[in-house]
Amino acid sequence: ISAYFAGMAAALLPYGPASDRFGRRGPVLFGLAVYVGAALGAAFVESFEAMLALRFIQGVGAASTRVIAVSMVRDRFGGRQMAETMSLIFMVFMVIPVVAPSIGQVMLFVGDWRFIYIAMGAIGAVISAWAALRMPETLRPEDRRPFTLASIGRAFATVLTNRFSLF
């Protein structure tokens, strides 16, 4: 479900334009913080509706990694090396939703359903700490774009008029 919410959020949120304006590092760390906070919050709520809302927010946070990872690879690599790195990233994004239910089932042998959310929050916190300490900014200052509706509109027009991005 979180992957579904992340996909919806990726389409609706301006992570791409924000990362083009502020750099890659800040927006991805923000998204990870949202993910961790929502995961830990979901572990301690008392109502199903609140848990669903927090799962949606968790998906919104997770969307930052899905969107910005592609931009970070494009910033750092080109040609064959970019293709190899993108293949690895897409493989991870495809495999995790397949194995996650099995991991969740194993976690239910250890604890109750809250343990799954605590584990997601803890894993997210470890990834966030690693990213904060080790992940460099990949967008050069001279390549930053303004965060305006006109700039975002021009970027969408570029994508929609590029036949490689449409087919």
Provide a descriptive summary of the structure in words:
This protein has 167 residues and is mainly alpha-helical. The radius of gyration is 17 Å and the shape is globular. The relative contact order is 0.16. Helix 2 packs across helix 3, helix 3 runs antiparallel to helix 4 and helix 4 packs antiparallel against helix 5. The protein is 83% helix and 0% strand.
Question: Count of DSSP E strands?
Answer: 0
What is the average of the pLDDT values?
87
Share in β-strands: under 5%
Order of helical and strand elements: HHHHHHHH
Helix amount, in percent?
A: over 70%
Radius of gyration: 17 Å
Low-pLDDT runs of 5+ residues are none
- Termini separation comes to 28 Å
Structural class by secondary-structure content? mainly alpha
| Largest sheet properties | none
What is the approximate shape?
Answer: globular
Number of helices: 8
What would a concise description of this structure say?
The protein has helices at 2-12, 15-22, 25-44, 48-76, 79-110, 113-134, 149-160, 163-166. By secondary structure, it is mostly helical.
